[in-house]
Write a structure and sequence with these properties.
alpha/beta; 6-stranded mixed beta sheet; 13 helices; 17 strands; 28% helix
């Protein structure tokens, strides 16, 4: 199996690649969800009417696989309510009316790190989760029973989706912070070598990282061909190490630990500044925006505020949380920006490719491009027929939901959408 052969060449449309990340003006209110991660939601520890400051704990972790939540603005807790998030789930939220002062919590300070456990505790208490979209609590990934099993740390800077440039700008503007975060992770795992995988269509970011790492020992910048989905975890591991994650397996099976570039930089912030995860860079782009931007955004900022900061020439046909290949379409723009949102993509009506009754042409293009070497056409048919055994036989759960099959389908069948929905059902059944 050669995982690097399949995939698609997508139009880059990196309209914001040359635009430095700008700090978004503090919004009037932020709505901060208690569930921005895989696992148990956080539990609110503040009440309506209470004053809060930047970096103050507002939600404690609800379990080991969970993450605490902190105030991204200073102000007053307006209410504790419910909101449908960008992923479509109903979540408990803490709404804060900002006072514009951005006063930091006086208790914030860099952690004292005398032992490995001190480092793990600092990451856990920071609310750190994977910022590439998965939202897996970072401390869980760092907590390994047998450290000798971890043979490679890979930082994901590929950013292969069209439009998105958040990690590109981060690597250009703060390369030393990314390198510093990688060194901390390498130290935890006792490794002398670490990798940063980045596509060759980001030459400025590559040079910035190489310059930042020139005096470091064991840090390798792996320049990869630009092909989607190069940044998918399993494809990235293969591209960097030449090893394949087995069907149904996790990167740990190969002794690999993969972290997003933004997560790595956030680890640096926690260790050296004592600042928990309260903000992130978000690319706001699309074909109808008047001023696409990279914005440094407080967690909890509504999508409406992001679109207002950029303006648009027509009413959006579709607004996606994420990029056009894997993003989730939104029906309400009051949804808040969460930790895993790296982009908001705004598309006009010319992007309406809906077909009422799409019929498969049996062309096999979806099979040709699938990076996991699956058969989307058979997966789709099994879903339509309700054939549970058929879903298992075509390895439905191995799908990474990259969208390659839908991208090339000449009949415009909603392959990824149907497969994604059924995977959620199957995973829920397996969990029970």
């Amino acid at each position: 199996m050669k995982l690097h052969i399949h995939g698609v060449h997508v139009p880059n449309r990196k309209n914001t690649a040359e635009l430095a990340a700008l700090r978004l003006p503090i919004p009037e209110t932020v709505e901060i969800p208690m569930s921005m991660h895989i696992g148990a939601p956080a539990i609110p520890v503040v009440k309506p009417g209470e004053s809060v400051r930047v970096g103050q704990l507002i939600g404690k972790a609800g379990g080991f696989v969970s993450a605490p939540v902190y105030a991204s603005v200073s102000g007053t807790v307006k209410k504790i309510g419910q909101q449908v998030g960008s992923g479509g789930r109903l979540m408990q939220t803490v709404v804060i009316a900002a006072d514009g002062k951005q006063e930091p919590d006086p208790d914030l300070k860099p952690p004292k790190l005398d032992t490995m456990q001190d480092f793990l505790d600092a990451v856990r208490e920071s609310g750190m989760v994977g910022l590439g979209g998965a939202g897996f609590p970072t401390v869980v990934k760092l907590t390994v029973k047998n450290l000798e099993q971890v043979r490679a740390v890979i930082i994901n800077g590929a950013e292969c989706e069209p439009y998105i440039t958040a990690d590109d700008r981060l690597c250009r503007e703060k390369p030393q912070d990314v390198i510093s975060g990688l060194k901390l992770i390498m130290k935890i795992f006792g490794l002398k070598e670490g990798h940063i995988g980045i596509e060759d269509n980001k030459p400025q970011a590559i040079e910035a990282l190489k310059e930042a790492a020139k005096d470091e020992t064991g840090i390798l910048i792996d320049v990869l061909p630009a092909k989607y989905p190069q940044g998918a975890e399993k494809q990235l591991i293969y591209a960097v190490t030449g090893r394949e994650v087995p069907s149904g397996g996790l990167p740990a099976a190969l002794g690999c630990a993969v972290f997003n570039a933004a997560t790595t930089r956030a680890i640096h912030d926690v260790v050296y500044d004592g600042m928990p995860l309260i903000k992130r860079i978000v690319t706001v782009s699309g074909d109808i925006l008047m001023e696409p931007k990279n914005l440094l955004v407080p967690i909890g900022t509504s999508f409406n505020d992001l679109l207002d900061a950029c303006g648009h020439s027509e009413n959006p046909y579709k607004v996606l949380s994420g990029g056009p290949m894997m993003g989730v379409a939104q029906y309400d723009l009051s949804v808040p920006t969460i930790k895993g949102v790296n982009a908001v993509t705004v598309l006009g009506k010319k992007n309406n490719f809906f077909v009422d009754e799409p019929h498969c042409l049996r062309c096999g293009k979806c099979i040709e491009v699938c990076p996991m070497h699956l058969m989307p056409v058979l997966m789709y048919q099994a879903i339509q027929d309700g054939d549970v055994d058929g879903m298992k036989s075509v390895n439905l759960l191995d799908c990474i939901e990259c969208g390659c099959c839908s991208f090339v389908c000449p009949a415009k069948r909603p392959l990824t959408q149907e497969i994604k929905s059924m995977r959620k059902i199957q995973l829920a059944k397996r969990k029970k």
